[in-house]
Specification:
Beta-Lactamase, alpha+beta
Length: 150
């Protein structure tokens, strides 16, 4: 569960408002680090970026992850295809789930849009037993702010 949603969103917003193009990647990495620290129960926090016909691993905080995901596979791919936030309290029950980290048992994925087009997916993995639905609204706001850094 996110410790202080307002503080987290304020920190990400400050990074997203900085228009220095050469710092966008650094800002994205710092924002993801802040998110990971504000959700101590998270196993992994990161972004998958849309490319030609698939999503590829972008900036993240956590253990090594799947590098390429088809649009129709796993929570990340389905989130992208459906263009809506997915809150999955038990990934083992999600059809086509892609296991990248054995600790991840729950997942929240949020589509990231730029000019009305989904260009990435913000993904947060959690171990079992976390109230992930409580984080979904804040993660949607964070994804909107992070999209400004793409």
């Amino acid at each position: 569960m996110i410790k202080d949603p307002n503080s987290l969103l304020s920190a990400i917003e400050a990074l997203a408002l900085d228009n220095e193009p050469e710092l966008k990647l650094a800002h994205m990495l710092n924002a993801l680090s802040a998110i990971k620290q504000e959700i101590p129960s998270s196993a992994w926090v990161g972004i998958y970026l849309k490319t030609d016909g698939k999503l590829i691993l972008g900036p993240f905080q956590g253990t090594p992850a799947c590098e390429s995901i088809r649009f129709d596979k796993g929570v990340v791919g389905v989130c992208y295809s459906q263009g809506k936030t997915l809150v999955v309290p038990d990934v083992t029950k999600f059809p086509g789930y892609i296991s990248c980290d054995p600790i991840a048992a729950q997942e929240v994925c949020v589509p990231m849009c730029v000019n009305g087009e989904t260009v990435a997916v913000f993904d947060v993995d959690y171990p079992a037993g976390n109230p992930i639905a409580d984080d979904a609204e804040t993660l949607e706001k964070a994804a909107a702010l992070l999209a400004k850094l793409l």
